UniProtKB/TrEMBL annotation:
Record protein name field: Aminotransferase
GO MF terms held by the record: L-aspartate:2-oxoglutarate aminotransferase activity
Origin: domain of life: Bacteria
Pfam families in the record: Asp_aminotransf
Lineage: Bacteria, Bacillati, Actinomycetota, Actinomycetes, Kitasatosporales
Keywords for this protein: Aminotransferase, Transferase
Alphabetical list of Gene3D superfamilies matching this protein: Aspartate Aminotransferase, domain 1 (3.90.1150.10), Type I PLP-dependent aspartate aminotransferase-like (Major domain) (3.40.640.10)
Provenance organism: Streptomyces natalensis ATCC 27448
InterPro entries listed in its UniProt record: AspAT_Ic (IPR024551), PyrdxlP-dep_Trfase (IPR015424), PyrdxlP-dep_Trfase_major (IPR015421), PyrdxlP-dep_Trfase_small (IPR015422)
Length: 426
């Protein structure tokens, strides 16, 4: 295999080869899409029974007629019981509501901007507010901050979660830092899992802002890709034991369990935060879609049923991740042009190409008919200072398409990388 410490003549040869491979790639007339992490059709079909449920049932376990307005305002208990252990939230403190966890994060921000959250002296709209944004991270978290004029301060991710020395420093010294985005398990996009020590430090750290919040977006709690089913520490208990019971907001949803955008979302937190949330949410909506919650509870059955369902997802997803990883290794290992994550779960692979090349790789791929998430999307303000990270979402395309996509991408990585190397050598 090749290395980047090539003499100029070798780089010219490699560049010529990459140019020929790219010409062959563009001549294929591909039209492939890798832009978002969506469940595949096979995964969606696994939840097809949902479309027949709740059949002629409309009563919840407590006798509630799900067809009508009315309590329970926290959502159906039987569904919350299924998800409480998975999201590590006591069932009394877990709310099932809406179809989108992103929507709940949006609403939490709005409610904190417009009304005083437990622990706060004033509402956030009357102050400068900044959030810590571990990078690379989830573009839609960053879009929420941008939407509301919340400044984002990037914090580098490590294999154990955000760099906690940086986090502790920033939250201790700056009262306008009022929150942090966290995807604690199988993080989007690099697959990192927060270590117990990271969770402990997040729960115990001193913050200058009394109303500091951890947005614990547990989007992938049961989305394992290996036998090692990673467990992450229970953040609510950690915060409560550290004397900061109101610090964490926990979010989750069934978007990547049943049907994306047609599932159920969850919010969990301290009793005070849940009361606060319900007092605001109760004005926005008369109540959740209990029929959808009932069909989800009937379909999943219990927490074991949920875990068994996700093992069937894994059977579909594992070969897709393996295909991409195998082709990356075959085409790029040892080239010095790229590194990539090998996640134990979740929906993404983070591909890090040679500094200054990510935008070129994405452009080349697009011109060859492969749509990839824009370079920079995983950074606040779409600005990756190294222009290096590309998010790969292998879940939706078929295995045959993934072969073409991964192979095509590696050609783009080689072309952009060797062009850069050649330019540097001149
Ligand atoms: N958080 C993360 C980390 C995600 O990756 C996603 C979906 N891609 C979401 C939230 C959005 O989930 P929902 O459909 O529940 O809004």
């Amino acid at each position: 295999m090749t290395t980047t410490s090539q003499p100029p003549a070798a780089v010219t040869t490699l560049l010529d080869q990459a140019r020929r491979d790219y010409a062959a790639l563009t001549s294929q007339g591909l039209a492939l899409d890798l832009t978002r992490g969506k469940p595949s059709l096979v995964q969606l079909d696994m939840a097809a029974e949902l479309l027949q449920l709740p059949a002629d049932r409309y009563r919840a376990a407590d006798g509630t007629d799900c067809r009508n307005y009315g309590p329970p305002s926290k959502g159906l208990r039987e569904l919350r019981e299924i998800f409480a252990p998975v999201l590590q939230v006591p069932v009394e403190q877990l709310v099932a509501v809406g179809n989108s966890s992103l929507e709940l994060m949006h609403d939490c921000l709005v409610h904190m901007l417009l009304s005083v959250v437990p622990g706060a002296e004033r509402r956030w709209a009357d102050q400068d507010v900044a959030f810590l944004a571990p990078v690379p991270g989830y573009d839609r978290h960053f879009a929420l901050c941008e939407r509301f004029g919340i400044e984002m301060i990037p914090v580098p991710m490590t294999a154990d979660g955000p760099d906690m020395d940086v986090v502790e420093d920033l939250v201790r010294s700056n009262p306008k830092v009022k929150g942090i985005w966290c995807v604690p398990k199988y993080s989007n996009p690099d697959g990192a899992c927060y270590s117990d020590e990271t969770a402990r430090r997040l729960a115990t750290m001193e913050t200058a802002a009394p109303d500091f919040r951890i947005f614990w977006d547990n989007a992938y709690p049961v989305h394992h890709l290996t036998d090692e089913e990673v467990e992450v520490a229970d953040i609510l208990t950690g915060c409560a034991e550290a004397g900061h019971p109101d610090r964490a907001f926990v979010f989750g949803s069934t978007s990547k369990i049943t049907m994306a955008g047609a599932g159920v979302a969850f919010f969990g937190s301290s009793p005070a935060n849940v009361d606060w949330w319900i007092s605001k949410a109760g004005i926005r909506s008369i109540g959740p879609d209990k029929v959808n919650q009932l069909r989800h509870a009937l379909f999943l059955g219990d927490t074991d049923g949920l875990r068994a369902h996700m093992r069937r997802h894994r059977e579909i997803l594992r070969p897709k991740f393996d295909t991409v990883l195998r082709i990356f290794a075959r085409e790029l290992e040892g080239s010095g042009l790229a590194t990539w994550s090998d996640p134990k779960g979740g929906y993404f692979i983070a591909l890090s190409v040679k500094k200054g090349c990510a935008r070129d790789v994405v452009r080349l791929a697009k011109e060859a008919g492969i749509a990839v998430t824009p370079a920079g999307a995983t950074y606040p303000y779409r600005s990756d200072p190294e222009d290096s990270v590309i998010r790969i979402g292998p879940t939706y395309p078929s295995l045959e398409e993934l072969e073409q996509i991964a192979q095509g991408l590696t050609v783009c990585v080689r072309l952009a990388g060797y062009e850069k190397l050649a330019a540097e050598q001149n």
